[in-house]
Structure formats: structure tokens, C-alpha cells
């Protein structure tokens, strides 16, 4: 039995070896299609550092100061004329066009609107500078943007006050 088992093992081994050496030969060790590198991956582009916002330049600081002073002067002039316009509008209550008092009240309000426009021009200049600065440094406000915004807030408060005064006086006039 021992000899029979050995013969069976030897026969099996020969059959297996003959199956491997059949018509196809040994498998190729070349790179197969599925092993080829393909795809659309691109190399990583290094992130460019964000620009550091410089402090407010002296020239821009002076310009901001001039614009605020211009708006402050305009606002003071507006306030001085607002009391005159209030008296003119009060005198025109109950009148209608083409009465002289009604026309005087319209002229007084128009004069206040013209005075307000000086502050609005300064505000528009600051808005443009602020937009440019925020475009240059969009991630976080730069020192320049903060200075511009503070000036915009101050002038904006004056313009809002002037708008309320003009609206109040306009509402008192009958059309």
C-alpha cells in the first residue's frame, strides 16, 4: 500500500506538471491593461499665501480726514439751514401751489437737499474706496477697510439724520 500510494502521488504530480506546461506556456509577467496607470489626477498646486494688508497709508488717511471734514461742514450747514426751512414750512401749512409761501417751502426743502448732496458725495467716495479695499483683501477687513468703514458709518449717520429731516418737512407740505 505504501508503494501504491507513492505511485499515485507521483502520477498526480506528473499530471499537474504536464497541465502547466500545456499549449499556453507560462503566464506573461508583462504589465496587463488593468495595471497601467491612467486617470486625470493633476499634481497639487501649492497654495499661494494670502497678501498681508498694509496699514492705512498717510495719503489715504488724509483723504479720509478731508472727506469726513467736508461732510461735517456740510452737515453743520444743513443743520443751520434746517431751522430756517422748518420755519418756512410751518408758515406754508395749509397753503397750496401756486401760493408764494408754498413755493418758498419747496425752495427751502430743495436747498436742504442740495446741502445733503455734499455729504452724500463724500459718502460715495468713501464707498468706492471701501469697495476697492474689500476687493483687494476679501478674506478679512484690512486696517484701511476698517478706517474707511468707520468714516462711512459717521457720514452715513449724518446723511440719515438729514434724510429724516427732509422727509419730515416734506410731509408737512400739502401738494
Q: How is the topology of this model organized?
A:
Elements: H1 2-20, H2 58-91, H3 100-136, H4 143-171
Helix pairs in contact: 2-3, 2-4, 3-4
Average pLDDT level: 86
Radius of gyration: 43 Å
Number of strands: 0
Outline: rod-shaped
Indicate the structural class. mainly alpha
The major sheet is characterized as: none
What is the N-to-C succession of helices and strands?
HHHH
Q: What is the helix tally?
A: 4
CATH architecture of one domain: Up-down Bundle
How would you describe this protein?
Helix 3 packs antiparallel against helix 4 (143-171). 21% of the residues are buried. The chain has 175 residues and is mainly alpha-helical. The chain has helices at residues 2-20, 58-91, 100-136, 143-171.
Key structural traits:
single chain, about 180 residues, mainly alpha, Methane Monooxygenase Hydroxylase, Chain G, domain 1, 4 helices, about 70% helix, about 0% strand, rod-shaped
Short description:
The protein has four helices and no strands. The protein is mainly alpha-helical and 175 residues long.
Amino acid at each position: 500500500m505504501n508503494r501504491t500510494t507513492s505511485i499515485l502521488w507521483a502520477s498526480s504530480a506528473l499530471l499537474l506538471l504536464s497541465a502547466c506546461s500545456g499549449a499556453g506556456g507560462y503566464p506573461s509577467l508583462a504589465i496587463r491593461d488593468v495595471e497601467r496607470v491612467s486617470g486625470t489626477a493633476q499634481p497639487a498646486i501649492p497654495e499661494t499665501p494670502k497678501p498681508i494688508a498694509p496699514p492705512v497709508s498717510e495719503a489715504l488717511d488724509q483723504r479720509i480726514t478731508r472727506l469726513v471734514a467736508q461732510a461735517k461742514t456740510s452737515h453743520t450747514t444743513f443743520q443751520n439751514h434746517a431751522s430756517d426751512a422748518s420755519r418756512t414750512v410751518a408758515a406754508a401749512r395749509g397753503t397750496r401751489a401756486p401760493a408764494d409761501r408754498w413755493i418758498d417751502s419747496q425752495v427751502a426743502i430743495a436747498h436742504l437737499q442740495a446741502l445733503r448732496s455734499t455729504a452724500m458725495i463724500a459718502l460715495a467716495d468713501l464707498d468706492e474706496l471701501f469697495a476697492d479695499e474689500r476687493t483687494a483683501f476679501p478674506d478679512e477687513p484690512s486696517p484701511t477697510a476698517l478706517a474707511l468703514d468707520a468714516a462711512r458709518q459717521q457720514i452715513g449717520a449724518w446723511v440719515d439724520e438729514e434724510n429724516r429731516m427732509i422727509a419730515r418737512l416734506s410731509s408737512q407740505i400739502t401738494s
